């Protein structure tokens, strides 16, 4: 597509959609976080569909009414897919459907339950055009954008008129439906792609005490934040004027007037263009011209819930959610309005990489927390004076360092698999692969569940799994093959072309050339598709176990690291018995920062231990990623430079410094709870760093002793088994 940045999770979603396009189910449901670029994903899918399937297809793209989403989507298609025809409903009513069309339709124009529905004659004309298209041999694929908004029987009746071969439903709040295939885009992937903010912070600046007007307080706090964000944009030379959204309940005329007065007193009015309004009534819209412009002059927007769907203003960074005995359900799309990064990348100022919610609506706040993994209450804590003088060298990747080439990747993977499966020659290796649970055949196999399954507790499951096979058809199965290759390239940490060449050298063709198997084209396709999970596991294991050749290492870049003088800490405001951890490097760092799900058990146990011992001067909890935190370079098995961020830096009262990384330990049953395949490589990198800089280090893991959680430290040689090299932490500090 023209001018579209390649983003891995979007392409992976498209690959999955293509592989499921011939599903026997009713269609595909996609849960796509607001800000993930769902319009681009759908456009990429349309392009891929026409490149791989029947051209005698028409896409019908249904959009909700608020925000003119169908026009926005149509414009995006015309911009990025100039060789494809984009139509609206009026075009179609006049000229009908043609092969290759994508028709964008606003639900308000076709849904009979809506007051703005088409006239009866127009409705009949649409049905006539659909029938005409079917007679011409055209097939329909339906896209239901923001499907939560019109997932009703009336809307389904409209969809049924098309008798489509496939229905695709997309929403940020989509729910699983057994009748549909399910694809979910992980919110963390969207964050890592820098498309949406790292975190949503709630009520920053709100402190205990008496208040006289909660709405006035929320608005003033929001305005302070807006000004801080505006100033930070100016400081880095970016012309963006941040926007505050103020969300009202449906029945709120009196509340609107009250808020308008507060804002007027603060200097924001309709007259000076600093205040805008967009309510559900189209007549009640003020100062909306150029509001989406990054430097738009509007600073506050009064809005109803209806604006949440189909509206995109990337400079919106703050949401004020007003409380007035509200009963309407939380809609995640509203939060999505403030989570987009305005330039699709993070800045070196953390203030600009987050979004902010101000509300006293406790039900709403809790629903946010339930829906967004990054939505927590936040507090800003300052560094203790004694920690400000501390500094240490951090390591950064050398961007000029590339990993190994095809030949070396091939050699290392071959050696790993030869050793693991005791392979000898390509003509003799099939039994060894099969003994390792690999399927070596020229048929594609499917495990299919049949029978009846009752999920109610206490009832029997009447199910059976049968294996189906089918002949390989390279054109048809090529999409499934490509999807598998995309997955394997990620494990090899290389591009598609390199991964493809490595796989072919290992398994495809009759020439020897050091192959592990000599497979025909159909056998090769079947082998890759049938064994995708085994290949993925083996490649990951190979990447983590291959010994790094020191001769390939290039010294990392270094820079000075100082503990940030203040930082934002997420905390669980439901905890009642809160205690200050005096050992922490930050003032007023408290036990409510132990957020279950984000903080691991070893981390929580370690920080409590630091609090109990009298040997520690201070402990600093390092961030998980970001240029402002302490990092060390390690190498994976293919000699790619990777960063990891050790969990803690601690200073002992004898002035010695320790760098600590925590990992999962052993369960009560003795099973290994460490899930990091690269733990040993990180251990060795940290060991080398500590030796070079003359400081102390250790990996810390937990296991129960006499039913009590205990910590064990290793700073000698890494072993997964917590035996001789793992000593009780009390032996060190």
Main sheet attributes: strand count, strand direction, barrel closure: 9 strands, mixed
Helices, by number, come to: 19
User: How much strand content do the residues show?
Assistant: 15-25%
Shape descriptor reads flat
List low-confidence stretches: 113-117, 325-330, 448-464
- Mean pLDDT across every amino acid position: 84
Order the strands across the largest sheet as they lie in space. 11-10-12-9-13-14-8-15-20
CATH class label of the largest domain: Alpha Beta
Number of discrete domains? 4
CATH architecture of the largest domain: 3-Layer(aba) Sandwich
Q: Total number of β-strand segments?
A: 28
State the helicity in percent bands.
25-40%
Q: How large, in whole angstroms, is the Cα Rg?
A: 29 Å
* Distance, first to last CA: 58 Å
Structural class assignment: alpha/beta
> Which homologous superfamily in CATH is the superfamily of the largest domain?
P-loop containing nucleotide triphosphate hydrolases
CATH topology heading of the largest domain: Rossmann fold
Oligomer: single chain
């Amino acid at each position: 597509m023209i001018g579209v940045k390649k983003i891995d999770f979007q392409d992976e979603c498209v690959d999955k959609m293509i592989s499921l396009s011939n599903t026997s189910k009713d269609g595909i449901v996609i849960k796509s976080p607001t800000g993930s670029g769902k319009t681009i994903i759908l456009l990429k899918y349309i392009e891929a569909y026409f490149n791989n399937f029947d051209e005698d297809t028409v896409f019908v793209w249904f959009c909700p009414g608020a925000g003119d989403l169908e026009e926005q989507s149509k414009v995006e298609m015309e911009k990025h897919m100039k060789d494809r025809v984009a139509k609206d409903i009026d075009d179609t009513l006049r000229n009908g459907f043609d092969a290759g069309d994508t028709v964008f339709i606003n639900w308000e124009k076709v849904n009979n339950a809506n007051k703005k529905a088409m006239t009866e004659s127009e409705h009949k004309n649409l049905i006539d055009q659909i029938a005409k298209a079917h007679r011409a041999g055209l097939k329909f694929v339906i896209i239901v954008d923001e499907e939560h908004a019109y997932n009703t029987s009336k809307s389904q009746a409209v969809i049924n008129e098309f008798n489509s071969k496939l229905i695709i439903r997309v929403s940020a709040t989509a729910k699983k439906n057994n009748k549909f295939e399910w694809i979910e885009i992980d919110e963390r992937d969207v964050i890592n792609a820098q498309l949406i903010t790292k975190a949503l912070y709630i009520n920053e600046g709100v402190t205990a005490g008496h208040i006289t007007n909660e709405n006035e307080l929320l608005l003033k706090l929001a305005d302070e934040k807006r000004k801080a964000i505006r100033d930070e944009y100016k400081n880095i030379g970016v012309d963006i004027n941040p926007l505050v959204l103020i969300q009202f309940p449906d029945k709120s005329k009196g509340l609107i007037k009250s808020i308008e007065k507060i804002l007027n007193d603060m200097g924001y009015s309709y007259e000076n263009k600093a205040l805008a309004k967009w309510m559900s009534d189209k007549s009640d819209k003020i100062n909306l011209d150029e509001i989406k412009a990054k430097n738009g002059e509007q600073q506050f927007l009064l809005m109803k819930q209806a604006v949440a769907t189909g509206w995109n203003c990337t400079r919106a960074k703050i949401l004020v959610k007003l409380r007035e005995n509200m009963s309407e359900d939380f809609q995640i799309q509203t939060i999505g309005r403030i989570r987009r990064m305005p330039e699709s990348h993070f800045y070196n100022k953390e203030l600009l990489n987050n979004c902010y919610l101000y509300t006293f609506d406790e039900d709403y706040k809790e629903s946010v927390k339930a829906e967004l993994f990054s939505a927590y209450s936040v507090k800003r804590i300052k560094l203790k004076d004694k920690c400000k003088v501390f500094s240490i060298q951090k390591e950064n990747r050398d961007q000029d360092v590339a990993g190994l080439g095809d030949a070396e990747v091939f050699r290392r993977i071959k050696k790993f698999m030869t050793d693991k499966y005791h392979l000898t020659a390509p003509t003799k290796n099939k039994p060894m692969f099969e003994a390792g649970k690999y399927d070596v055949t020229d048929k594609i196999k499917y495990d299919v569940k049949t029978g009846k399954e009752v999920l109610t507790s206490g009832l029997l499951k009447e199910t059976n799994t049968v294996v189906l096979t089918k002949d390989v058809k390279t054109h048809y199965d090529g999409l499934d093959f490509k999807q598998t290759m995309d997955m394997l390239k990620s494990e090899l940490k290389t591009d598609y072309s390199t991964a493809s060449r490595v796989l072919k050298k290992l398994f495809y063709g009759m020439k020897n050339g050091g192959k592990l198997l000599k497979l025909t084209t159909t056998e090769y396709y079947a082998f890759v598709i049938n064994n995708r999970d085994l290949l993925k596991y083996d490649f990951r294991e190979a990447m983590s176990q291959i010994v790094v050749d020191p001769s390939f290492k290039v010294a990392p870049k270094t820079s000075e690291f100082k503990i940030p003088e203040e930082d934002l800490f997420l905390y669980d405001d439901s905890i009642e018995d809160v205690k200050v951890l005096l050992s922490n490097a930050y003032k007023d760092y408290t036990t409510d920062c132990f957020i279950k799900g984000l903080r691991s058990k070893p981390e929580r146990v370690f920080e409590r231990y630091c609090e109990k011992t009298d040997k520690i001067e201070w402990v600093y909890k390092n961030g998980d990623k970001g240029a402002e935190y302490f990092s060390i370079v390690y190498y994976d098995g293919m000699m790619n430079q990777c960063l990891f961020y050790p969990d803690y830096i601690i200073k002992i009262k004898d002035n010695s410094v320790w760098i600590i990384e925590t990992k999962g330990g052993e369960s009560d049953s003795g099973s290994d709870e460490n899930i990091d395949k690269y733990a040993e490589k990180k251990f060795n990198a940290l060991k080398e760093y500590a030796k070079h800089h003359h400081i102390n280090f250790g990996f810390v893991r937990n296991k129960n002793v006499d039913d009590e959680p205990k910590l064990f430290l290793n700073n000698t040689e890494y072993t997964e088994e917590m035996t001789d090299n793992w000593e009780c932490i009390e032996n060190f500090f």
